[in-house]
Amino acid sequence: MKDLVWYASYGSNMLKNRFLCYIRGGTPESADKNYLGCSDKTEPIEDKPIILPYSIYFSKQSYIWENKGVAFIKPLRDENLRTLGRMYLISKDQFIELVHQENALDPRNTFIDIDFAYLILNGETKIPANWYSRIIYIGDKKGHPIFTFTSTWDDSEIILLPPGEKYLRTIIKGIKETYNMANEEIIQYLIALPGIKGLIGKQDIDTIVKSA
Length: 212
What we know:
Distance between the termini: 38 Å
Mean pLDDT: 93
Radius of gyration: 16 Å
Strand order of the largest sheet: 2-5-1-8-7-6
CATH topology: Hypothetical upf0131 protein ytfp
Order of helices and strands: EHEEEEHHEEEHHH
Largest sheet: 6 strands, mixed
Low-confidence stretches: none
Strand content: 15-25%
Structural class: alpha+beta
C-alpha cells in the first residue's frame, strides 16, 4: 500500500467536491480557476471531521475568491482552541501535489521537497512557496500522520480581511457536510472568527448560512 497521510482542511476544502478538484482536476463551483489535479487521481480512502487546536483567521486577497480574504491558521497550538476541520486520507504524493496547487505552482515544472520524517520530528517545516508555505504535523489517526498547511508570516504582519460570500458559502457547505450542526451553531461559530468578527454583520452571516 502507498504511504498514506491525512490532509486536514479548515477552509473551502472542507467541501468535498471542492477538494476533489485538486485530486481529479476541474473547476470548483463558485471558484474562478481550473485545477490540474494530481497525477494519481484516486479519490480519498476516507474522510473524517477533525477539531483543530489552532486559531483560524481570514486574510489576503484571493483573485480566485472575489479578491476577498481566505482562511489561514496561526501555527501556535492551543488545546483550548476549536477550529472546525475535515481531513482526507490520501497518498503522500497526492499531498505534495496538493501543496503545489494550493500555492499556485504546477507540479509538472516545480519541485517541492517535503521531508516528512523531519516534519513529524519537529512539528512543522517551511517550504519555498507562496501563501501556504508552512506545513504542520498535527498528530496521528489510524496509524497515519495528519498534516495541514498555513502561512509563514508573523502575527504582527497579519491584516484581517473578510471572506467574500462565495468563499464563505463554500465553507458553510463543508461544515454542513461534515458536522451535525444547527444553523444557529454555525452562525455563532463564524461570527466569532477573526476576519469576520466586526467585519461582516450577523444578519449577513445568517442569510448565507440558511441559504447554503
